[in-house]
Amino acid sequence: MFGPNRFAPRLHDVPHEELEAAGIRGLIVDLDNTLLGFRETELAREHLEWVARAHDRGFRIVMLSNNFTARVTSIAAQLNVACIPNALKPLPFGFLRAVQALKMRRREIAVVGDQLFTDVLGGKLCGLYTILTEPIEAKDLALTSFFRFFERLMLPNRRVP
Q1: Is residue 25 in a domain?
Q2: What is the pLDDT of residue 54?
Q3: Is the residue at 20 inside a domain?
Q4: CB within 10 Å: which end of the chain, N or C, has fewer?
Q5: Which residues, including other chains, have CB under 8 Å from residue 108's CB and lie 6 or more apart?
């Protein structure tokens, strides 16, 4: 239940071709420490290009974040993707809203995020394919840092900054 289907160092390291071969056409992507470092506002060129190539290949993307509306909608607008802020991950409500927004079957959707106990667990609870990335930076909210301790216990070989 807790193990992701796949690991990737960063979002931009996930090959679009691999997703297509697995029948994935929709993506639910986390924001903090997946697309951007903690409290950063400028997206890395690699992530901007990865999302643009995903759009060009016909992928649909929804950003799903526990962060507040203003931050999430601002970044989503830069990427030209739909978003669901205040998602309360790992509870299924936000994930199910994202599935509805993508208008796809669950087997066609992958969740990409940096946290085992929010992104992966929430995706698994909804029957979605999950990809766990390394966090962009070590800085996090206190609660997230607490859960990182348990992530290291469950995934001792994972590289966490």
Answers
A1: yes
A2: 98
A3: yes
A4: N
A5: 23, 24, 25, 26
CATH number for the domain including 18? 3.40.50.1000
Q: Which domain holds residue 52?
A: 6-154
83-88: Cβ within 8 A, 24+ apart: none
- Do the domain assignments include residue 50? yes
**pLDDT per residue over 82-138, tens digit each?**
999 999 999 999 999 999 999 999 999 999 999 888 999 999 999 999 999 988 866
Q: Are 8 and 14 in contact (CB under 8 A)?
A: yes
Mean pLDDT, range 35-49, rounded to an integer: 89
Segment 17-36 mean pLDDT: 96
pLDDT at 3: 84
Picking from 30, 1, 23, the residue whose alpha carbon sits closest to that of residue 124 is 1
Relative orientation angle of helices 45-56 and 69-79, to the nearest 10 degrees: 60
- The pTM for the full model equals 0.89
Number of helices and strands in the chain (H, E):
6, 6
Instruction: Determine how many CB atoms are found less than 10 A away from the CB of residue 35.
Output: 30
Q: Is residue 159 situated within a structural domain?
A: no
**C-alpha of 60 from chain center:** 13
